[in-house]
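Here we describe the complex-level prediction in full. Unlike the single-chain runs in Section 2.1, the two entities below were treated as one system.
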Amino acid sequence: MSDVVDAGLLPELRSYGAFDISACFNCGNCSAVCPLSDGEGSFPRRMIRLGQLGLRDRLLAGREAWLCYACGECTATCPRQAGPSDYMAALRRWSAARHEPTGLGRLMHRGAWGVSAVTLGLGAALAAALLTVPAPPSPPQWIFRAVPYGAIHEVGLAVSALLAVSLAWSLGRFLRRADPGFRSLSRPLADHRAAAKATLRELVQLRRWAPAAPGRADPGSPRAAHMLIAGGFMALLAATSLDFVFIYLLKFASFPPARVLGTLGGAALLLGVSAALLRRARAADPAVRRSHAADWWLLGALWFLAVSGFWLEADVGLRVAGAFQDGVLLLHVVAALELILLLGSGKLAHVVYRPLSLYLHYLDGGSASAGGCGGAVSRSAP
Amino acid sequence: MTASATVSASAATLDVDVLVVGGGIAGLQSALEAAEQGRKVLVVERQPSIGGRMINLSKVFPTLDCASCITTPRMASAAHHPNITIRTYSELGPIRREGPRFTSTLRQKARYVDEAACIGCKRCEEACPVFVPDEYEHALGARKAIRIPFTNAIPQTAVLDMDHCTLCGLCAKACPTDCIDFLQEDAEIPVTAGAVILATGHELTSMAAKPEYGRAALPNVISPMQAERLLAPHGAYGRVLRPSDGKIPDSIAYVQCAGSRDASLGVPYCSRVCCMYAVKQAMLLSGSLPVADITIYYMDIRAFGKGYEQFVASARAMGINFVKAKVARIREDADHNPIVRIERQEAGGTVEEVRHDLVVLSLGMLPGADPEREGFAGVLRDADGFVRTPEAKLSPTLTDEPGIFVAGTAAGPKDIVDSIQDAGGAAMEALRHLRSNGLEGRP
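The structure predicted for the assembly as a whole is:
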């Protein structure tokens, strides 16, 4: 790895949301206060230092940004109020944008105009595709009169295929840049099994999420919100897949379990996203002191998706139809497809990078506990 | 006039050339400088004794002079100077400009002791059955409800703490001069002066300011002033013991910047003296406890004055550990041993927890008085809360009000050397102000 000093790196990172990071004077408070720092290594200070020194390759090689839970302790206690937590968030946006091939991620983080340009441009293209793609005849459901049922699935498949290609590309780059990256993958199978188990458990339970520090707001609610959002997502993914299999492929007239699962998932998503939006709007705790336009975009899109989904449910239930309902359906589908298409480039990218980073972390023997120092307390100082 | 004018004395106006607000080392130095030039000076001190922070210290850097030994003579010179009047246990009201002069009202708090009659024999203190945490020892020891404030206090006049007094009357029975007066009341005395010197000093930042440092609830995490009293030859215990169990500490740590250079506490500035007093205390500790490990956790060492860099170098040579790290958290184990959590920046950047027996938080300086809230005429407060000095570079003792000057830590964090120099400058400015405004020929 060559160490090329890139003076433009820090301004670049600032544009991804690390607004105050130039104030950092490297005292190391953030690393020491971080519940995730343990005997094996430290962050965020190391990552900030790499950014300040302009060591782009080393920064991209680290997986620390994806291990961070954005609990905000470092930002709350930073003597310079340099926002280390904001920096870690910026690092995630920047890394995702650097790994993905389309360039949409970089555009998304140009601020409000970039977000709008991507949203509107992609939206228009997707809407055009949905309305024009030749689709097989739809089941006789009136809600799909403007946007044919078949078209949704055809375009959906195409979008998923695009995403798969883009993700494969991004993850390949991530692993190639990561240190140790590919080398870790050659460990014995038992290590892989243990790492997979630890990763899965952490993903479901979020056990390393910072426990409430005395005197600080209980970070329990964002953790719960995240669980609701992630759970809702999983349920919606399962429901959509079931729908696809049973109704589209096996030609069932209806499949109630998918419907129930989808409704529950939608409710969880709506609840979680509303809580997250409220927290961000209040900017109450240090982790969300400052928000990037892309943060609002993701939460806004999710919220719109959930609300419009329930609106359509109600339309179906009450048998209301009209141009307005057609519009809602079109926007609902466009928003869903945009989210899928941008999964690898925006904030949602952590859905792939975090599990992979956690996996590599455990594969290299990383600690699974929170708050400790590998359990060791040394006596006095040598 | 002498330091021990009677309290009951009438509301006759105290009319002086220079009013000095604060009887710490800066205030006393200003008063002595002006008095030596033949000006009449009034020193108003809130505490029952003059001497301020300096008299409370063990030794001073970089000379390692005994603080008592060099402060007490200054206190005595001021107290015995024919041109200096000292009012202790007194608070000054707002200062108003009236024509070319300043007026104010001084509220002399009731000591419940006739100051003129008290001979400082301490019989009352011996008789008193009430023990109260001693402010002078920063709660490491106890005092009585009636007492002489501390051994070398000036004036050596008893003061009764009515909040804790049980009115048992034992002190009154013990007093050989019958000077205890339970019915004494505060007295208000008008003051006029041609010039004013603000020497209102500083407070220390709170032990509880940083929640990560145990919210002042960990018994073996102490303040630097407590450490001074542990080290002072006539201090609370006369030796270095840790508060929770009286054990002699084997491992002591200093946490630098525990109250300064921290925007999350609203104290972004450097308090200047903390590096030096920590190094000084570390040296004194290694003298008292030759086998103890002493560690200073620092962000960077700021040894700014004459001879200070050499002082730090000798501390390093003495074997004091300097560890570059900002302490992020302090917790304690079951035996009340404090455990600090740090990133070892110079050893691979690993995060570590280190157990010590005693931890001292190097607290920073906050302003002792807010000139705007106190109503000190047109004196303004700076962004950092200290007295604003509009010509900070070339006339650092000038305030926004002509005729009112500032000395010592009232204007910002400073060590004793700089405070003394400041005090001389402020006295000179005050005398020049008197002369150029025709205020010298006082009646």
